[in-house]
Design brief:
- The structure is a single chain.
- By secondary structure, this protein is α+β, with helices and mostly antiparallel strands.
- The protein has one domain: Glutaredoxin (3-Layer(aba) Sandwich), CATH 3.40.30.10.
- The protein contains 2 helices and 4 strands, in the order E-H-E-E-E-H.
- It has a 4-stranded mixed β-sheet, covered by helices on one side.
- Strand 3 and strand 4 form a beta hairpin.
- The protein is globular and about 40 Å long.
- The relative contact order is 0.21.
- The mean pLDDT is about 95.
- It binds FE2/S2 (inorganic) cluster.
- The site of FE2/S2 (inorganic) cluster (FES) has 11 residues, from loops.
- The site of FE2/S2 (inorganic) cluster has 11 residues, from loops.
Length: about 110
């Protein structure tokens, strides 16, 4: 069993220019830092883990974030969205519906 109640994985994968899109060049490192700062600010370091990770899959929809254990996916994030995720999801357990990512039906 995990020590943490929630684990936020932020894709920080960065591909070279003029290749397939990736989250890194779209401020995902800043998103990662903002989330980590909010966890610390709210005294949640023992409950919530936030880490950067490699490609999560839906690269065209980046920046992408997934929250476990529930498996809530967010996509097309901006820095301005992070406060809403913190206030609603992280602090109140209510995912931000308008930012959720729905995987297409036919994905392996
Ligand atoms: S590069 Fe972020 S999901 Fe693939």
């Amino acid at each position: 069993m995990s020590k943490f109640k929630q684990h936020y994985f932020v894709c920080i994968n960065a591909r070279p220019p003029f290749t397939k899109p990736s989250c890194g060049p779209q401020n995902s490192n800043q998103i990662l830092i903002l989330l980590q700062e909010e966890v610390e600010k709210h005294g949640l370091l023992n409950d919530i883990k936030v880490t950067g990770c490699a490609c999560l899959g839906p690269c065209e929809e980046g920046p992408v974030l997934v929250v476990y254990p529930e498996g809530t996916w967010y996509a097309n994030l901006t820095l301005e969205d992070i406060n809403e995720i913190v206030e609603s999801h992280m602090l109140q357990g209510q995912p931000v519906r308008r930012l959720l990512y729905d995987w297409p039906e036919n994905v392996d």
